[in-house]
Amino acid sequence: MRILAATLALTMPALAQADFDTKAKFAILMDEDSGTVIFQKDADLPMEPASMAKLMTIAVVFNEIRSGRLSMADMFFVSEHAWRTGGAASGGSTMFAELNSQISVEDLIRSVIIQSGNDAAIILAEGIAGSETSFVAMMNELGEDIGLTDSHFTNPTGLPDPDMYVTARDLADLARYLIQQFPEYYHYFSEPEMEWNGIKQPNRNSLVELGIGVDGLKTGHTEAAGYGSVISTDEGGRRLVAVLHGLTSMAQRTEEGRKLITWGARAFERVAAYPEGAVVAYANVYGGSSPSVGLVGKGEVALYLPRGSRKCLNAQVNYTGPLSPPVMQGDQIAELRVFCDDQLVQTAPLYAAETVGEGDLVRKATDALKQLALGWL
């Protein structure tokens, strides 16, 4: 069973709510390296991704390049479907690609990231998979591989579709995937502008030019969903990833994004709680070759806590248990939840320190009543 504290993510106030709030309907702020959550607000509720869905399009493209099936110099044809659905006549964001022309993969990537070109996204989808439908299957397959368990994509553009949805948490994890897996391409996200067909367009992420260290990643907007953005910065000595959505204007999106990312970079102190490989706690394994498995962080478990809050801290380790073997080393099976005066201020994922296989009959009988272990430090 999952203990009660682990079921409160959607009903509790946002992390550190006493110190910060946002006008966004959905929000999350993560440490990019560890996945530690510093702030969240309805981060697991489904929402329309708008053009932020293009981050999954770009993830598929980068994977195709890494596999050798695609190169930046490949040229893709501009079909009538891409021209009509995503071009100037559609009224949406576009690179103004000319019908029946050919455009390089690199220029299409730049357009999707900088201009949010719907035509560019469709051209990439058709060039890679033959059709949007086949490309969407690739998007969802990669999303499953990444672990985006609460998202479903139906097109490469983010154009409205009632069957397409994401969560703020999944978008943040997707951003972390792009940053960590494709650092050689990350510079595209901070390019200030792009010109195509004689038309110059600025980066739609206005935070890139504010001088606050933001260097990505994507904005989105539809009438129904409002304004949103996926943001990253390495200001403050570590990289943060933020997602906000459901805002009412471009100006509000910029201001709320600036506030969240600045607060995250400045309002916290780093506490090295556990060195790399140190066991944080143990989880019970029912019927395993060992009665429990150690829980460790990804590298060092460093907590980012509101300044001056160390004396108020307590924590618990939550997981769905007892676990059933086999438990594989490296599996994410638990979560460290840190509180200050009963206020949830941070979460961090925990992983199995070793593999625990099936135990004998005696072990299975004696482990049946083991309960969840709690505690910290």
UniProtKB/TrEMBL annotation:
Report the InterPro entries cross-referenced here. Beta-lactam/transpept-like, Peniciliin-bd_prot_C_sf, Peptidase_S11, Peptidase_S11_C, Peptidase_S11_C_sf, Peptidase_S11_N
Q: What task does this protein carry out? A: Removes C-terminal D-alanyl residues from sugar-peptide cell wall precursors.
Protein family according to the UniProt entry:
Belongs to the peptidase S11 family.
Q: What does the record give under GO molecular function?
A: serine-type D-Ala-D-Ala carboxypeptidase activity
Involved pathway(s): Cell wall biogenesis; peptidoglycan biosynthesis
The protein in question is named serine-type D-Ala-D-Ala carboxypeptidase
Q: Which organism is it from?
A: Devosia ginsengisoli
- The residues annotated as the active site are 51, 54, 116
EC number assigned by the record: 3.4.16.4
A GO BP annotation: proteolysis
Give one Pfam family: Peptidase_S11
Chain segments annotated as transmembrane: none
Which residues are noted in the entry as substrate-binding? 218
Q: Which UniProt keywords apply?
A: Carboxypeptidase, Cell shape, Cell wall biogenesis/degradation, Hydrolase, Peptidoglycan synthesis, Protease, Signal
Q: What is the lineage of its organism?
A: Bacteria, Pseudomonadati, Pseudomonadota, Alphaproteobacteria, Hyphomicrobiales
Which reactions fall under this protein's catalytic activity? Preferential cleavage: (Ac)2-L-Lys-D-Ala-|-D-Ala. Also transpeptidation of peptidyl-alanyl moieties that are N-acyl substituents of D-alanine
Q: Where is the signal peptide?
A: 1-18
Name all Peptidase S11 D-Ala-D-Ala carboxypeptidase A C-terminal domain ranges. 268-358
Q: Does the keyword Chloroplast apply?
A: no
